Amino acid sequence: MKWYQVKEQAAGLKRLLFMYYLYRICGKKAVKCLTFFVTFFAFIFGKEVRGYSKKYLPEAGVKPTLVNQFRHFLSYSDILIDNMETFINKFDPHNITFADEDTKNEFFNCVIQKKGGFFISSHLGNIHVLRSFLSAKYDKYNVHVNIFLSENQCKIFNEFIRRIMVPQADVTTYPVEQINVSTPIEIKEKLDRGELVFIAGDRVSETGSTVFQTKFLGRTVEFPLGTFTFAKLMDCPTFFIVLVKTKGDKYITYIEKAPVNQKEMQTAYVKFLENLTRRYPLQFYHFYDIFVDGKTGEK
Fold first, then answer.
1. CA 12, CA 76: separation in Å to the nearest integer?
2. Does the residue 92 lie in any domain?
3. In a domain, 212, yes or no
4. What is the model's pLDDT at position 10?
5. Label partner for 70 (CA 20 to 30 A): which of 193, 197, 204, 286?
C-alpha cells in the first residue's frame, strides 16, 4: 500500500482548527493532554497503520513492541502541535539550532546573499518549523519560501491560514500533483531572485511518476526520481535538510550539500536520510508499507 492510499487522520483541517482554538483558550498543556488521548484511541483502533509501524521499527533498530509503536504514533502527534504553533507564529525560533557550523553558514549565505537554494527534505522529523526560524531571523531580508506539498496538504494549509487570519511569512505552496512543463521555469526564476525551494525526496507521487529503487535500512524502497531531476535542472546550490526534535521542544537542523551529479545526489540523499533515520527512528513518519521487496520485516 502506498502513502496516498492511507487515509491521514491526524492533520485534517477540522483537527487543526480545534487544536488552534483549544490552544488559544486553554494553552499548550491542554492541547498536549488532549492529543495524548486522541493518539491513544487512534492507536488502539488503527490496526492497519499500527502494523506498518511494527514492520518498519525493527528495520530501524527498534524493538516493535506495543510501547514503541505507541511512542512512534505519539511522536507524530507531538510535531503536529509544533506545526500548529508555527502556523500561528507562536513557535520559538530560538529552539532551532544547527548541527554543523559550516553547512549552517552555507544555508545563511543562500538567504543573506540572495543566491537561492533548493532543499530536498523528507518525512523524517519536522521541516515545517524552519519557517519560524526564517521568519524571525531573516524578516529584514524578505525571504520567500516555496514549498511543494501534496494537493490535499496544500488545501489544508491554505484554508487553515485563511481561517485563523494570522499574518504569515512569505510562503507559496505548490501541489506536487500539478507540476507541469512550466513549473521548472517558474521555480528557476524564483531561485534566481534568491528565493528558497523545499520539496520532499522520500515519497513517490500519486500521479505515478518515475521512481528509482534503492536499498534503505537494508530493504528495497522506492524514491521519486522527479525530485532529483528537478534539482539538477535548477542548476543552483542544492542541499539535503532534516530537522529532528529533541528534549524541551528543541530542534536540531541537519544540512548536507548535495553532489552536482544526479545519480550521486540520489545515492548521497539516501545515505543522509538512512543515517539520520537510524539515529531518530521514532521520527520517521511513513505510516504505510515503504518496503517493496516482500520481506516480513520481523526480526
1. 14
2. yes
3. yes
4. 46
5. 204
Q: How many domains does one find in the chain?
A: 1
Domain that holds residue 202: 3-283
Dist. CA 239–CA 94, nearest whole Å: 22
- What is the number of residues in the chain? 299
Assigned domain for 293 exists:
no
Q: Which residues of 108-134 are buried (b: 16+ CB within 10 A; e: fewer)?
A: eebbeeeebbbbbbbbbbbbbbbbbbb
191 occurs within a structural domain? yes
Query: What are the b/e assignments for 268-280, b being 16+ CB within 10 Å?
Result: bbbebbbebbeeb
pLDDT in tens, 43-87: 998 888 899 999 999 999 999 999 999 999 999 989 888 888 887
